[in-house]
Automatic annotation (TrEMBL), chains A, B:
Gene3D superfamilies: Hypothetical Protein Pfu-838710-001. SMART domains: CYTH (SM01118). It comes from the Bacteria. This is CYTH domain-containing protein. PROSITE patterns: CYTH. Residues 2-148 form the CYTH domain. Residues 129-157 are annotated as: Disordered. It holds the Pfam family CYTH. CDD domains: CYTH-like_CthTTM-like_1. InterPro entries: CYTH-like_dom_sf (IPR033469), CYTH_domain (IPR023577), NeuTTM/CthTTM-like (IPR012042). The active site is at 29 (proton acceptor). PANTHER family: SLR0698 PROTEIN (PTHR40114).
Amino acid sequence: MAVEVERKFLVTSDDWRANATGASFRQGYIDTSDETTVRVRIAGDAAFLTIKGPSEGMSRAEFEYPIPLSDAQDMLRDLCRRPLIEKTRYDVSFGGKLWSVDVFGAENSGLIMAEVELDHPAESVPLPPWVGEEVTEDPRYRNSALSLSPAPGTQAP
Amino acid sequence: MAVEVERKFLVTSDDWRANATGASFRQGYIDTSDETTVRVRIAGDAAFLTIKGPSEGMSRAEFEYPIPLSDAQDMLRDLCRRPLIEKTRYDVSFGGKLWSVDVFGAENSGLIMAEVELDHPAESVPLPPWVGEEVTEDPRYRNSALSLSPAPGTQAP
């Protein structure tokens, strides 16, 4: 078991975009009845099945396995609830850490979120000038929640 | 994606037991809100994460991945709903097919079920004399249901 320790922020400007390289992510969730999530993700040409436990602050247990792309396509088509999450993930270095900036599409168009993985919950990280409000513990901004109801301020079609 | 095509029967006698070899299974389910199931199974020293789609008669989509034993132990302990399913699975050859005879323990003590995988839904298989009522399409006898409420006729402790 890995423990994912992560902080998430809303992004407030485009200043992160210079030289950032992006990859297309498409992911969905098998509907669970508690806070455990079961995610199917296609990231570029790779695919993963990921189980995450309930959040405890900024930490969650995470179990991730690479799976065949065709399995992920089948599960996204047949088993994951609608709508799927579509986003482009950009890798951005700042202050010695690798940040992921997610530019959401489809139902969550307009939402841009940045996240950074910590080595432990007490780790202090310098915050880039292009992040604003921290939403680490706001359940509305979990990707699994975004596939149920779009983020505040975005426009569902 | 594999498609699992399976028929299940209640077992009515002990005549299958001669020479049958058994392995301990311990499995649990991440609680889902529809008929998709997410199963964590420890079978002897091996472990698997299995996603199954809704049943269509005797067929279900099935996606199965070997996972580290310690991951399965963690997920069974922390993420799967109670009670877990405990059973001993015996492999029994009959009429050219390999049958699995599951002798349930814990909350489902007293339940013995036999299942056989078919190559296609129309395949005709000879039925062993030790099977009785067919329960293929009886949702109460799905293992995922047995972990919610014990089988008819068994004694919850």
